[in-house]
Design brief:
With 400 residues, this protein is an alpha/beta fold. Strand 4, helix 3 and strand 5 (88-91) form a beta-alpha-beta unit. It has twelve helices and 22 strands. Helix 5 packs parallel to helix 6 (170-182). The strands form six sheets. The protein has a four-stranded mixed beta sheet.
């Protein structure tokens, strides 16, 4: 087990944020389907290693595709491999083996692909995916819709993705459409979902991946609670839904300065608010930390899908908040946090979940004494240099 020990401090300075892993996943797959071109920069996180590894395995004609612990990789690449008529087995590691991929159990066989799976990994597929109508629930995971959008333009005929329920996390699908458009592939949004013309060609190009807004949230919150932090390398015209962290911070009363490609956030008087997390589930852990250091009550709702991430993130966040003395109540789709409680250092659980570790590393900045968080290196899933950036601008984190 690896542990990070953190002493209270103030973050003061500038962080050049890593490239968006969400955009990079999509660009890597589009580049693969185009048959060439570069995608840069790419950080050596486990999730990026997963997508790069699966693509390389497909190029070599290998039959076992290891998605490590990346839910995006497996849900994006299953229909892509089926569209390419590959007979392969998708597998993974750790928590990914417990995450569902059940939507494909019905969708793929209905379109000429044989599937062997119990609803989780491993999943073996064979056969040529056929065009047609794909009815998908919009409230399970937007990753299924992204996977289909990436795959269906490669088929000969036209297809439709029909949403059976309203789409949650729509900004992630908007990002998919934007990246695909950059590669010359058109997806039409309709009243029923999406229309995808077949026989489209992905064009070869050299793609530059924009900065990651979800990662910026950790440092911006650190600035708002008690520091002075500038995050640079951001695209203000992004389709990333987690740019909403700016609106969230403003709703708490945080002082923000927005420039061409950077955001500065300084210590502010913060007050609780209500947050609908339907489209920004990945921000909930750090929003919850922000709420704990704000006056008054914060209600977070619409986050029920967090129960099926690397950990049950609602339960994980609530447990750690209670350990540091916060007044928090778990609800079915989120939590209620009453700010103003006297908070203190504690031994916290990382739950082998990168966003939990990073969020509570921010909380630890403002607690008395030394805070410990286990599973510290789960940050390697998305942001391996997090503690280096954290310490460089004043943090006191020691990973053991």
């Amino acid at each position: 087990m690896n542990i990070v020990k953190i002493n209270n401090s103030i973050l003061n300075g500038e962080v050049v944020i890593p490239p968006s892993k969400s955009a990079a996943h999509r660009a890597l797959i589009c580049s693969f389907l185009a048959g060439g071109g570069t995608v840069k920069p790419i950080i050596p996180s486990k999730d990026m290693q997963a997508t790069v590894g699966v693509i390389e395995a497909l190029k070599k004609g290998e039959s076992i595709l290891d998605c490590i612990e990346s839910g995006s990789t497996v849900r994006f690449m299953i229909p892509v491999a089926a569209a390419l008529s590959r007979n392969v087995t998708f597998t993974g590691q750790g928590s990914l083996l417990d995450r569902t991929i059940g939507e494909y159990l019905e969708l793929l066989p209905a379109h000429n692909v044989s599937v062997k799976s119990d609803g989780k990994l491993p999943m073996e597929i064979s056969g040529q995916l056929e065009n047609g109508s794909y009815e998908v629930s919009g409230d399970v995971s937007s990753q299924y819709i992204t996977g289909l959008l990436l795959a269906l333009p490669n088929l000969d005929g036209d297809s439709a993705v029909i949403l059976k329920t309203p789409l949650q996390s729509k900004p992630y699908v908007d990002m998919t459409i934007k990246v695909m458009s950059d590669y010359g592939v058109e997806i039409k949004e309709t009243d029923f979902g999406y229309l995808i013309h077949g026989a489209q060609t992905f064009k070869k190009l050299d793609y530059t991946v924009e900065g990651d807004w979800s990662h910026s949230a950790f440092f911006l919150v650190a600035g708002a609670v008690g520091g002075d932090v500038t995050v640079s390398g951001l695209d203000m015209n992004t389709t990333q839904g987690d740019k909403a962290i700016l609106d969230v911070l403003k709703s708490f009363g945080a002082e923000i300065e927005i420039n061409d490609n950077s955001v500065r956030c300084v210590k502010s008087k913060l007050s609780g608010t209500e947050i609908d997390a339907t489209d920004i589930p990945d921000l909930v852990p750090i929003i919850a930390v922000l709420a704990a250091f704000s006056d008054g009550q914060t209600v977070i709702r619409g986050a029920q899908r967090l129960r099926f991430k690397e950990s049950d993130r609602i339960e994980s966040v609530v447990e750690n908040l209670k350990r540091i003395g916060a007044d928090v109540t778990e609800t079915a789709d989120g939590m209620i946090i009453n700010g103003g409680a006297r908070l203190h250092s504690a031994k916290l659980k990382g739950y082998n979940d990168h966003r939990i570790v990073m969020a509570f590393s921010v909380a630890a900045l403002f607690l008395d004494g030394e805070t410990e968080i286990d599973d510290a290196m789960s940050i390697n899933k998305s942001y391996p240099s997090f503690f280096e950036d954290y310490n460089r601008i004043g943090g006191k984190a020691n990973v053991i």
